[in-house]
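Feature request disguised as a bug: please show the residue count (197) next to Flavodoxin domain-containing protein in the output. Example input:
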Amino acid sequence: MLSFLILYGTGEGQTETVADRIAETIDTRGHDATAIDVDELSAGFDLGEFDAVLVGASIHVGKHQPSVLEFVRSNRTDLNAMPTAFFQVSLSSATEEGRAQAVGYFEEFSAEMEWHPDRVGFFGGALRYSEYGFLKRLLMKQIAKRAVSDMPEADASGDVEFTDWDEVEAFAADVAAFVEGRLGVTPPGATGQPELE
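Example output, currently without the count:
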């Protein structure tokens, strides 16, 4: 069994929800996955307790959370020496047209941080209109109208989610398989023998 850290920064909670789904998917493979908000890390936190690290951040006004940037900057030597992945949650990632912009945000981040994760995922975020004040709600509706031509249905609160959960689970499974291969670990429950019926 391997231990995975899923460390994330979140604005309105969608990146946390994505991190939790990644952790569930990795747990289902028989590993131990822990999702932690970067703002809740304890002072004596040790990356060495984990076999692999996934870092997640959302995009707000073209920038990742400062606390995520600081974590990566402070730990880039350790991160570059172990299996890692990065996932980004943004409205840009919700459309094919916006993907290039989303990739650009990541490339700028990676170059600035001097960290090169083994796997990268881009996921559509959510618009939490129910949590916005009047002006922010108006602004976000205008941005969404320009950015996304085919809006998904809103939930009962009026919020709109763009995250493709199958894509999130596939990313998590790919990261887990990559780490298993890199560290030479057979997934728990896998015997290498065909199952008998």
